[in-house]
Specification:
The protein has 16 helices and 13 strands. By secondary structure, the protein is an alpha/beta fold. The protein has three domains: about 15-75 and about 190-260, HypD, alpha/beta domain 1 (Rossmann fold, 3-Layer(aba) Sandwich); about 75-185 and about 270-310, 3-Layer(aba) Sandwich (Rossmann fold), CATH 3.40.50.11740; about 330-370, no CATH class. The strands form three sheets. A five-stranded parallel β-sheet has the order 2-1-9-10-11. A four-stranded parallel β-sheet has the order 4-3-5-7. It has a four-stranded mixed β-sheet with strand order 6-8-13-12. The structure holds iron/sulfur cluster. Iron/sulfur cluster binds near residues 328, 344 and 354.
Protein backbone atom coordinates (compact mmCIF):
# COMPACT_ATOMS: atom_id res chain seq x y z
CA UNK A 1 0.00 0.00 0.00
CA UNK A 2 1.31 3.47 -0.89
CA UNK A 3 1.54 5.79 2.10
CA UNK A 4 1.34 9.53 1.60
CA UNK A 5 3.51 12.17 3.21
CA UNK A 6 1.43 14.13 5.71
CA UNK A 7 4.00 16.69 6.78
CA UNK A 8 4.78 19.06 3.99
CA UNK A 9 4.28 22.29 5.91
CA UNK A 10 7.37 24.41 6.64
CA UNK A 11 6.23 25.06 10.21
CA UNK A 12 8.37 24.21 13.16
CA UNK A 13 6.70 26.32 15.78
CA UNK A 14 3.54 24.24 15.40
CA UNK A 15 4.39 21.86 18.23
CA UNK A 16 1.44 19.54 17.51
CA UNK A 17 2.54 19.14 13.90
CA UNK A 18 6.15 18.58 14.97
CA UNK A 19 5.21 16.04 17.60
CA UNK A 20 3.01 14.18 15.09
CA UNK A 21 5.87 14.28 12.58
CA UNK A 22 8.27 12.68 15.06
CA UNK A 23 5.67 10.04 15.98
CA UNK A 24 5.28 9.21 12.28
CA UNK A 25 9.05 9.04 11.82
CA UNK A 26 9.41 6.72 14.83
CA UNK A 27 6.63 4.48 13.50
CA UNK A 28 8.15 4.27 10.01
CA UNK A 29 11.68 3.67 11.32
CA UNK A 30 10.43 0.90 13.61
CA UNK A 31 8.51 -0.77 10.74
CA UNK A 32 11.51 -0.58 8.37
CA UNK A 33 13.98 -1.71 11.04
CA UNK A 34 11.85 -4.70 12.02
CA UNK A 35 11.90 -5.81 8.37
CA UNK A 36 15.55 -5.16 7.51
CA UNK A 37 17.33 -5.21 10.89
CA UNK A 38 19.59 -2.44 9.56
CA UNK A 39 20.13 1.06 10.89
CA UNK A 40 18.79 3.67 8.47
CA UNK A 41 21.54 6.11 7.44
CA UNK A 42 20.46 9.33 5.80
CA UNK A 43 23.02 11.81 4.58
CA UNK A 44 22.32 15.53 4.55
CA UNK A 45 24.62 16.68 1.77
CA UNK A 46 24.51 20.41 2.42
CA UNK A 47 26.34 22.24 5.21
CA UNK A 48 23.34 24.52 5.74
CA UNK A 49 21.23 21.43 6.49
CA UNK A 50 23.92 20.21 8.90
CA UNK A 51 23.69 23.50 10.79
CA UNK A 52 19.86 23.56 10.71
CA UNK A 53 19.64 19.99 12.05
CA UNK A 54 22.06 20.76 14.88
CA UNK A 55 20.52 24.15 15.71
CA UNK A 56 16.97 22.78 15.91
CA UNK A 57 18.01 19.94 18.23
CA UNK A 58 15.87 17.54 16.19
CA UNK A 59 18.37 14.67 16.48
CA UNK A 60 17.33 13.96 20.05
CA UNK A 61 13.82 13.11 18.85
CA UNK A 62 15.03 10.50 16.35
CA UNK A 63 15.00 6.82 17.26
CA UNK A 64 18.47 5.22 17.56
CA UNK A 65 17.87 3.18 14.40
CA UNK A 66 17.92 6.42 12.35
CA UNK A 67 21.27 8.15 11.85
CA UNK A 68 21.86 11.48 10.11
CA UNK A 69 25.33 11.79 8.56
CA UNK A 70 26.94 14.90 7.14
CA UNK A 71 28.05 14.91 3.52
CA UNK A 72 30.51 16.73 1.28
CA UNK A 73 28.44 19.91 1.05
CA UNK A 74 30.42 22.45 3.05
CA UNK A 75 32.45 24.45 0.49
CA UNK A 76 35.27 25.37 2.84
CA UNK A 77 35.53 21.82 4.23
CA UNK A 78 35.93 20.17 0.81
CA UNK A 79 38.63 22.56 -0.43
CA UNK A 80 41.85 20.56 -0.38
CA UNK A 81 44.73 21.45 1.89
CA UNK A 82 46.92 21.85 -1.20
CA UNK A 83 44.53 24.43 -2.66
CA UNK A 84 44.45 26.32 0.65
CA UNK A 85 48.26 26.47 0.46
CA UNK A 86 48.07 27.82 -3.10
CA UNK A 87 45.64 30.56 -1.97
CA UNK A 88 47.96 31.53 0.89
CA UNK A 89 50.89 31.71 -1.52
CA UNK A 90 48.99 34.26 -3.61
CA UNK A 91 48.05 36.23 -0.47
CA UNK A 92 51.77 36.61 0.30
CA UNK A 93 52.49 38.36 -3.03
CA UNK A 94 53.21 42.03 -2.44
CA UNK A 95 50.90 43.91 -4.79
CA UNK A 96 47.90 41.58 -4.31
CA UNK A 97 44.62 42.40 -2.57
CA UNK A 98 42.79 39.22 -1.60
CA UNK A 99 39.00 39.46 -1.52
CA UNK A 100 36.99 36.61 -0.04
CA UNK A 101 33.89 35.46 1.76
CA UNK A 102 34.46 35.39 5.53
CA UNK A 103 34.48 31.60 5.92
CA UNK A 104 37.88 31.27 4.26
CA UNK A 105 39.66 33.57 6.72
CA UNK A 106 40.56 30.99 9.36
CA UNK A 107 41.22 27.87 7.29
CA UNK A 108 44.79 26.93 8.07
CA UNK A 109 47.35 25.96 5.48
CA UNK A 110 49.87 23.22 6.10
CA UNK A 111 52.31 25.72 7.69
CA UNK A 112 49.72 26.74 10.29
CA UNK A 113 49.02 30.21 8.88
CA UNK A 114 45.65 31.40 7.56
CA UNK A 115 44.31 34.51 5.80
CA UNK A 116 43.38 36.04 9.15
CA UNK A 117 46.94 35.76 10.54
CA UNK A 118 48.36 36.99 7.24
CA UNK A 119 46.11 40.05 7.41
CA UNK A 120 47.33 40.73 10.95
CA UNK A 121 50.86 40.50 9.60
CA UNK A 122 50.10 43.19 7.02
CA UNK A 123 48.67 41.45 3.94
CA UNK A 124 45.77 43.30 2.27
CA UNK A 125 42.88 40.85 2.70
CA UNK A 126 39.28 42.03 2.58
CA UNK A 127 36.07 40.17 3.44
CA UNK A 128 33.23 40.81 0.99
CA UNK A 129 29.57 39.91 0.84
CA UNK A 130 29.50 39.91 -2.96
CA UNK A 131 32.23 39.17 -5.52
CA UNK A 132 30.96 42.16 -7.49
CA UNK A 133 32.51 44.39 -4.80
CA UNK A 134 35.89 43.02 -5.87
CA UNK A 135 35.44 44.72 -9.25
CA UNK A 136 34.94 48.06 -7.54
CA UNK A 137 38.11 47.47 -5.54
CA UNK A 138 39.90 46.58 -8.79
CA UNK A 139 38.78 49.84 -10.40
CA UNK A 140 39.91 51.85 -7.36
CA UNK A 141 43.33 50.12 -7.13
CA UNK A 142 44.65 49.93 -10.67
CA UNK A 143 48.25 49.42 -9.50
CA UNK A 144 47.26 46.26 -7.55
CA UNK A 145 46.08 42.77 -8.53
CA UNK A 146 42.71 41.90 -7.01
CA UNK A 147 42.10 38.19 -6.42
CA UNK A 148 38.70 36.85 -5.41
CA UNK A 149 38.83 33.46 -3.66
CA UNK A 150 36.48 31.33 -5.73
CA UNK A 151 35.45 28.27 -3.75
CA UNK A 152 31.99 26.77 -3.44
CA UNK A 153 29.38 24.77 -5.27
CA UNK A 154 26.85 25.42 -8.00
CA UNK A 155 25.19 27.96 -5.68
CA UNK A 156 28.16 30.33 -5.64
CA UNK A 157 29.53 29.65 -9.11
CA UNK A 158 26.89 31.63 -11.12
CA UNK A 159 27.48 34.95 -9.31
CA UNK A 160 31.24 34.55 -9.67
CA UNK A 161 30.78 33.64 -13.35
CA UNK A 162 28.73 36.81 -13.73
CA UNK A 163 31.50 38.81 -12.04
CA UNK A 164 34.16 37.40 -14.38
CA UNK A 165 31.94 38.07 -17.37
CA UNK A 166 31.46 41.66 -16.20
CA UNK A 167 35.24 42.11 -15.72
CA UNK A 168 35.77 40.78 -19.25
CA UNK A 169 33.10 43.08 -20.64
CA UNK A 170 34.49 46.17 -18.85
CA UNK A 171 38.09 45.18 -19.66
CA UNK A 172 39.10 45.12 -15.99
CA UNK A 173 42.56 43.63 -16.31
CA UNK A 174 43.70 43.57 -12.69
CA UNK A 175 40.97 41.20 -11.46
CA UNK A 176 41.47 37.44 -10.99
CA UNK A 177 39.79 34.50 -9.28
CA UNK A 178 40.97 31.18 -7.87
CA UNK A 179 38.70 28.78 -9.78
CA UNK A 180 38.17 26.02 -7.22
CA UNK A 181 34.48 25.30 -7.68
CA UNK A 182 33.00 21.89 -6.94
CA UNK A 183 29.97 20.07 -8.30
CA UNK A 184 27.57 18.18 -6.05
CA UNK A 185 26.43 15.25 -8.30
CA UNK A 186 29.98 13.83 -8.81
CA UNK A 187 30.54 14.07 -5.04
CA UNK A 188 27.43 11.95 -4.50
CA UNK A 189 28.88 9.40 -6.92
CA UNK A 190 32.05 9.30 -4.82
CA UNK A 191 30.03 8.77 -1.63
CA UNK A 192 28.02 6.00 -3.28
CA UNK A 193 31.14 4.26 -4.55
CA UNK A 194 32.03 3.50 -0.93
CA UNK A 195 30.03 0.35 -0.18
CA UNK A 196 31.13 0.08 3.45
CA UNK A 197 28.96 3.00 4.49
CA UNK A 198 25.70 2.25 2.76
CA UNK A 199 23.56 5.36 2.56
CA UNK A 200 19.80 4.68 2.78
CA UNK A 201 18.75 8.06 1.41
CA UNK A 202 19.90 11.59 0.66
CA UNK A 203 18.51 14.90 1.91
CA UNK A 204 19.71 16.96 -1.04
CA UNK A 205 20.77 20.61 -0.95
CA UNK A 206 18.05 23.16 -1.57
CA UNK A 207 20.25 26.04 -2.75
CA UNK A 208 22.35 24.01 -5.19
CA UNK A 209 19.20 22.39 -6.54
CA UNK A 210 17.64 25.79 -7.27
CA UNK A 211 20.47 26.18 -9.81
CA UNK A 212 21.01 22.68 -11.21
CA UNK A 213 17.45 21.34 -10.85
CA UNK A 214 16.20 18.23 -9.07
CA UNK A 215 16.56 16.10 -12.18
CA UNK A 216 20.37 16.28 -11.83
CA UNK A 217 20.10 13.56 -9.17
CA UNK A 218 18.15 11.07 -11.30
CA UNK A 219 21.21 8.82 -11.54
CA UNK A 220 21.27 8.40 -7.74
CA UNK A 221 17.71 7.10 -7.66
CA UNK A 222 17.75 5.15 -10.94
CA UNK A 223 21.23 3.68 -11.09
CA UNK A 224 22.10 3.43 -7.39
CA UNK A 225 18.51 2.87 -6.19
CA UNK A 226 18.91 5.33 -3.34
CA UNK A 227 15.90 7.53 -2.43
CA UNK A 228 16.44 11.29 -2.71
CA UNK A 229 14.54 14.30 -1.41
CA UNK A 230 15.50 17.91 -2.11
CA UNK A 231 14.61 19.77 1.08
CA UNK A 232 14.40 23.35 2.27
CA UNK A 233 16.18 24.65 5.35
CA UNK A 234 13.44 25.18 7.93
CA UNK A 235 13.44 22.40 10.53
CA UNK A 236 10.00 21.27 9.35
CA UNK A 237 11.33 21.09 5.76
CA UNK A 238 14.00 18.67 6.92
CA UNK A 239 11.60 16.64 9.06
CA UNK A 240 9.28 16.43 6.10
CA UNK A 241 12.15 15.39 3.83
CA UNK A 242 13.13 12.61 6.26
CA UNK A 243 9.54 11.46 6.37
CA UNK A 244 9.42 11.39 2.55
CA UNK A 245 12.62 9.31 2.42
CA UNK A 246 11.22 6.82 4.93
CA UNK A 247 8.04 6.52 2.90
CA UNK A 248 10.06 5.81 -0.24
CA UNK A 249 11.92 3.03 1.60
CA UNK A 250 8.70 1.61 2.99
CA UNK A 251 7.11 1.65 -0.46
CA UNK A 252 10.18 0.08 -2.08
CA UNK A 253 10.70 3.20 -4.20
CA UNK A 254 13.83 5.11 -5.16
CA UNK A 255 13.08 8.40 -6.85
CA UNK A 256 13.94 12.07 -6.64
CA UNK A 257 11.28 14.06 -4.83
CA UNK A 258 11.22 17.73 -3.99
CA UNK A 259 9.99 18.91 -0.65
CA UNK A 260 11.38 22.41 -1.42
CA UNK A 261 9.01 22.85 -4.33
CA UNK A 262 8.52 26.54 -3.47
CA UNK A 263 12.04 27.19 -4.84
CA UNK A 264 13.31 24.17 -6.79
CA UNK A 265 12.26 23.13 -10.29
CA UNK A 266 13.20 19.89 -12.02
CA UNK A 267 15.11 21.87 -14.68
CA UNK A 268 16.78 24.36 -12.32
CA UNK A 269 17.65 27.94 -13.20
CA UNK A 270 18.47 28.10 -16.91
CA UNK A 271 19.99 31.62 -16.81
CA UNK A 272 22.38 30.64 -14.03
CA UNK A 273 23.30 27.46 -15.91
CA UNK A 274 23.93 29.51 -19.07
CA UNK A 275 26.36 31.97 -17.45
CA UNK A 276 28.24 29.11 -15.76
CA UNK A 277 28.51 27.30 -19.09
CA UNK A 278 29.81 30.44 -20.78
CA UNK A 279 32.53 31.25 -18.23
CA UNK A 280 33.52 27.82 -16.83
CA UNK A 281 34.26 24.36 -18.07
CA UNK A 282 34.07 21.06 -16.24
CA UNK A 283 37.35 19.55 -15.03
CA UNK A 284 38.65 17.16 -12.39
CA UNK A 285 38.95 18.70 -8.93
CA UNK A 286 40.86 17.93 -5.74
CA UNK A 287 38.60 17.27 -2.74
CA UNK A 288 39.91 17.34 0.81
CA UNK A 289 40.88 13.88 1.99
CA UNK A 290 39.13 12.33 -1.01
CA UNK A 291 41.59 13.31 -3.71
CA UNK A 292 40.83 13.94 -7.34
CA UNK A 293 37.29 13.28 -8.57
CA UNK A 294 36.83 13.22 -12.30
CA UNK A 295 34.61 15.95 -13.79
CA UNK A 296 33.75 17.24 -10.32
CA UNK A 297 34.89 20.85 -10.61
CA UNK A 298 34.63 24.02 -12.65
CA UNK A 299 37.60 25.95 -13.98
CA UNK A 300 37.67 28.93 -16.33
CA UNK A 301 36.87 28.19 -19.96
CA UNK A 302 39.46 29.07 -22.62
CA UNK A 303 37.78 32.42 -23.39
CA UNK A 304 38.13 33.52 -19.74
CA UNK A 305 41.31 31.75 -18.61
CA UNK A 306 43.24 35.02 -18.29
CA UNK A 307 41.27 35.59 -15.06
CA UNK A 308 42.84 32.48 -13.46
CA UNK A 309 45.00 33.73 -10.56
CA UNK A 310 46.91 30.44 -10.30
CA UNK A 311 47.97 30.70 -13.93
CA UNK A 312 48.72 34.42 -13.81
CA UNK A 313 50.95 34.10 -10.73
CA UNK A 314 52.33 30.71 -11.86
CA UNK A 315 51.34 28.97 -8.62
CA UNK A 316 52.30 25.30 -8.60
CA UNK A 317 50.11 22.48 -7.31
CA UNK A 318 50.78 21.30 -3.76
CA UNK A 319 50.20 17.77 -2.58
CA UNK A 320 47.37 17.68 -0.05
CA UNK A 321 48.37 16.82 3.49
CA UNK A 322 45.62 16.87 6.11
CA UNK A 323 46.30 18.39 9.53
CA UNK A 324 47.66 15.47 11.59
CA UNK A 325 44.88 13.60 13.41
CA UNK A 326 42.03 15.62 11.80
CA UNK A 327 39.30 13.34 10.40
CA UNK A 328 37.40 16.01 8.43
CA UNK A 329 37.74 13.86 5.29
CA UNK A 330 35.95 10.95 6.94
CA UNK A 331 33.28 13.24 8.38
CA UNK A 332 32.41 14.81 5.02
CA UNK A 333 32.14 11.34 3.48
CA UNK A 334 29.68 10.19 6.17
CA UNK A 335 32.19 7.72 7.59
CA UNK A 336 32.62 9.35 10.99
CA UNK A 337 30.95 11.85 13.30
CA UNK A 338 32.68 14.85 14.91
CA UNK A 339 32.61 13.13 18.31
CA UNK A 340 34.80 10.37 16.82
CA UNK A 341 37.68 12.86 16.52
CA UNK A 342 40.05 12.83 19.50
CA UNK A 343 40.62 16.58 19.16
CA UNK A 344 36.93 17.55 19.10
CA UNK A 345 36.17 20.20 21.73
CA UNK A 346 39.62 19.76 23.29
CA UNK A 347 42.51 20.75 21.06
CA UNK A 348 40.08 21.79 18.31
CA UNK A 349 37.43 24.45 18.94
CA UNK A 350 35.99 27.21 16.72
CA UNK A 351 38.36 29.78 18.27
CA UNK A 352 41.38 27.53 17.73
CA UNK A 353 40.42 25.15 14.95
CA UNK A 354 42.62 22.45 13.52
CA UNK A 355 40.53 21.45 10.51
CA UNK A 356 38.04 23.23 8.22
CA UNK A 357 35.02 21.32 9.58
CA UNK A 358 35.48 23.32 12.79
CA UNK A 359 36.24 26.61 10.99
CA UNK A 360 33.37 26.85 8.58
CA UNK A 361 29.98 28.12 9.71
CA UNK A 362 28.62 25.16 7.72
CA UNK A 363 31.07 22.59 9.06
CA UNK A 364 29.83 19.51 10.92
CA UNK A 365 32.34 19.90 13.78
CA UNK A 366 31.37 23.56 14.26
CA UNK A 367 27.68 22.57 14.29
CA UNK A 368 28.25 19.82 16.88
CA UNK A 369 30.41 22.11 19.00
CA UNK A 370 27.88 24.94 18.98
CA UNK A 371 24.68 22.95 19.43
CA UNK A 372 25.71 19.45 20.52
CA UNK A 373 25.30 16.24 18.56
S1 LIG B 1 37.26 18.29 15.50
FE1 LIG B 1 38.83 19.52 14.44
S2 LIG B 1 40.51 18.12 14.11
FE2 LIG B 1 38.70 16.89 14.53
S3 LIG B 1 37.79 16.44 12.55
FE3 LIG B 1 36.81 18.26 13.31
S4 LIG B 1 37.99 19.93 12.42
FE4 LIG B 1 39.27 18.09 12.24
Amino acid sequence: MKVKNKFSSPLWNDSLLASNAFKEIKKLVSQIYSETGETIKFMEVCGTHTMAIAASGMRKFFPPELKMLSGPGCPVCVTSQGDIDRILEIAAIEDVIITTFGDMMRVKGSLGRDLHSMREAGADIRVLYSPLDALRIASENKNKKIVFIGVGFETTAPIIAQTVFHAHDKKINNFFITPLFKLVPPALKAVLSNDRHKISGFILPGHVSVIIGAKSYDFVARKHKVPCVVAGFEPMDIISGINMLLLQIQNGASKVETEYFRAVKMEGNKSAQAIMKKVFKIASAQWRAIGSIEKSGLILSDAFKRFDAFKYFKIRHYSSKEPKGCICGKIIMGQALPEDCRFFGKKCTPSDAIGPCMVSSEGACAAWFKYGG
